[in-house]
Amino acid sequence: MTTDTLFQPQLFKGIALFTPGGDLIYCIDSNKQGRWHSHLCTALQEILDLPEPPHFLVPCYTATIDHWLDPQTQQVKTFAEAYPVVMKHQAVLNAIFDTGDLVWQPAPWQDGLCDRMVLSTYRAAFPQLWEDHDLIINLDLSEPVPRYYPPARAVQKAAIKTYVLRLFVAGHSANTERILKNLHEQLERSLGYPYTMKVIDVLTNPEQAEIDQVSATPTLVKVWPHPIRRLVGDLDNAEKILQMLGAKDKL
After folding, report:
1. How does pLDDT run across 132-152, given as a tens digit for each residue?
2. Sheet with 229-232, side-by-side order of all strands
3. Which of 37, 39, 73, 185 has the fewest C-beta atoms lying within 10 Å of its C-beta?
């Protein structure tokens, strides 16, 4: 594995959100706006195909860093803190934020808000969060498409490409079963990357069809990675499917 330099602006604010399984998604902002907890949770929902954004991870599984300029001394100073359950990931945090051997300060544990027993009650509904997918993602909100960075050597992880798909159908007929079987066979044979595919019946879940702007069935929607793309109608053509997914070279 090669070591890539993750260049950061001298003055910035960053936030990292871990999962209980050890995956990581983070943001860096040189404008120091700091509005991203909800963005990170929403991105995790899409990537791991969760039933809803995992807001219960905040703040217990977060770490924040601020590179700021002291107006009196004109020196750049750093304030970095992490909640107790993610303090073990200091090497990872220093790798993604390029902060060397910085020692992070423990954020105060909040009883009731960060109760381990309470958090564990979410495990049955969000099992993906307790699995390690070797995922490290920089969600760059200044660009339309989030960027995946290979981790630095100290991280000891590999960024992977994961597809999140939704198949919209009208009822569970024999034709639906045929489409689903053919899709799975084509994706397993030709895609070359991990994927999850959720089947959504527009007759029982019209709200989701409206959210995803689906007006006809069958429709295959690529939710992740961005940009979002849709393929309507002919789902037997492997070339069209892989072209829609941006993976035509895997044919």
Report:
1. 877 888 876 655 444 443 333
2. 195-201, 163-169, 219-224, 229-232
3. 73
